[in-house]
Amino acid sequence: MLGFHDSAEEVVLVPHSGYSSDEIVRRGQALYDREIRAQVEPSHRGKFLVLDIDSGEYEIDLNEVAALKRAKARNPGAALYILRVGAPTAYRVGGPRVATRA
Questions:
Q1: Alpha-carbon span 86 to 64, nearest angstrom
Q2: Residue 90 and residue 47: Cα distance in Å, rounded?
Q3: Residue range 30-84, pLDDT digits in tens
Q4: Which end of the chain is least crowded, N or C, by CB within 10 Å?
């Protein structure tokens, strides 16, 4: 399931019975902004971050499936929020990026 957040960061949601998709986005983004962003963006830009919105524990990897598997192994019932560190979207659809000058 894909979800979109108002800050233009595309977010991938892992379905969870205890939270709505909107609640996962709200809680995950707030936790990331408040406690994690400053720690991970300088050295993990472009990698995927899978965040347990209840515990605050997270996994980072270039491969989102690997990060997701580790997070689910740690807590199989967790509500997980997935984003790409330092990027406006987790995924891109379409052709290659084209640099433009402003």
A1: 15
A2: 9
A3: 999 999 999 999 999 999 999 999 999 999 999 999 999 999 999 998 999 999 9
A4: C
Of 59, 9, 57, 55, the closest CA to residue 29 belongs to: 9
Q: Where are the beta strands (DSSP E) in the chain?
A: 2-4, 10-13, 48-52, 58-61, 80-84
Nearest-5° Cα angle at 28, 23 to 34: 130
DSSP code, position 99: -
CB neighbours of residue 88 within 10 Å: 10
Domain parsing of the chain, residue ranges: 2-84
pTM exceeding 0.90:
no
Nearest to 11 by CA among 22, 56, 20, 40: 22
